[in-house]
Structures are given as structure tokens and as C-alpha cells.
Amino acid sequence: MISTFTEWALACGIVAIGATVHQGPPPAQPPPPLAPTLKAGDVAPAFALQGSDGKVHRLADYKGKTVIVAWFPKAFTGG
Questions:
Q1: 58 — pLDDT class (breaks 50, 70, 90)
Q2: What pTM did the predictor assign?
Q3: Residue 77 vs residues 4, 71, 73: alpha-carbon distances, Å
Q4: CA distance 28 to 24
Q5: Quick one: average pLDDT of 44-66?
Q6: Nearest CA-CA partner of 47 in 38, 35, 37, 59
Q7: What distances in angstroms separate CA 68 from CA 37, 46, 63, one per listed residue?
Q8: 73: number of CA atoms within 13 Å, CB side?
């Protein structure tokens, strides 16, 4: 039981020190965006992606054609 002001101050100090020790690192800032966001009608930047066939597909290889890029997390595929 705390009977004096000194004991009370000591107990509060220990609690405060314990709280700061177990606080952990400050929250991380969100990472900056990797690239600008595209809007409908924007020209796509040049890029290359490896297809499931192992071949590297470059956007420039499909110039003048309609291109649809679709991807699925590997965890949700049947392979």
C-alpha cells in the first residue's frame, strides 16, 4: 500500500517508465505511391511483364492492338 507522497511518486514513475519502454517503435509512414495513378483514357507507360508462359510481354510489342492486362494472386490460381 502507498502511504507517502514519495512512494506514490515512485510508483507513478515506474509505471510511466514501463509504459515508454514497452511502447514499441513509432507507427510507420505509408509508403509513397510507386507510380502515378492512371485514369481512363490515359496513355499507358511502357512496361514489360512475364506471362504464365514464361515469355516476357512488352506493351510496345502490341502497338496498335487492344491490350487487356489481368492478373491473379498465385494463391488463388489452380496451378
A1: very high
A2: 0.42
A3: 68, 10, 7
A4: 11
A5: 90
A6: 59
A7: 17, 14, 13
A8: 2
Domain boundaries, the chain: 46-79
Taking 90 as the threshold, does the pLDDT of residue 56 lie above it?
yes
> Distance between CA atoms of 76 and 4, rounded to whole angstroms?
64
Greatest Cα pair distance, the chain, in angstroms, is: 85
Per-residue model confidence as pLDDT tens digits over 22-54: 567 777 888 776 767 888 888 888 999 888 889
Residues 11 and 30: their CA atoms lie apart, in Å, by 37
What's at 54, amino acid-wise?
G
If we measure between CA atoms, which residue out of 36, 39, 57, 40 comes closest to residue 48?
57
